[in-house]
Design brief:
- Helix content is 60%, strand content 11%.
- It is built from 7 helices and 3 strands.
- A hairpin with a 2-residue loop joins strand 2 and strand 3.
- Helix 3 packs across helix 4 and helix 6 packs across helix 7.
């Protein structure tokens, strides 16, 4: 496991998140983050000693879940605000938050428990349903998982 996968595993353990059951209001309650819904773009912030995440109420549940994980990624990985940052650094932080969101919603430690004896289509469908994510995200995580397993296998050979 890499650093981010290990961090996510520890978050799941500490917050007692069950596989495929990321509930934003529960996560926020355990982390003392205020969660609100509004008719505006999702974002996170810090004001007068309080962290908050605002989710766009007009998005689908799946989209809100992704936005939540993305904003949680900012909370876990970044300090301060981006207003005075250069665009290249903002872009970098956004990519980090996306990476966190993808790994948080479909974590490596839970992908290891999936039954891979079924067809690729059945496994893909299972991951989409189990983790409540889009087909695109499920496919991306499964491909990354396959590469990870392949690389671990290659590294285990001793010449």
């Amino acid at each position: 496991m890499n650093y981010l996968d290990d961090m996510i595993y520890r978050i799941y353990e500490k917050l007692e998140i069950e596989a495929g059951n990321v509930l934003p209001h529960n996560v926020c309650a355990k982390l003392n983050i205020i969660l609100r819904y509004a008719d505006e773009a999702s974002f996170h912030g810090y004001y007068e000693g309080t962290y908050y995440i605002i989710l766009n109420e007009s998005k689908t549940q799946q989209e809100q879940l992704y936005d939540f994980a993305h904003e949680l990624g900012h909370f876990m990985l970044h300090a301060g605000n981006q207003f005075k940052s250069r665009q290249v650094y903002i872009d970098y932080q956004e990519k980090q938050a996306d990476n966190f969101a993808e790994r948080f919603l479909v974590p490596l430690h839970l992908l290891r428990k999936v039954n891979y004896e079924k067809t690729r289509a059945e496994v893909l469908y299972y991951v989409m349903q189990k983790f409540n994510v889009s087909k695109k995200l499920a496919k991306k995580r499964l491909e990354l998982y396959e590469r990870t397993i392949y690389e671990q296998t290659i590294q285990s050979y001793h010449w």
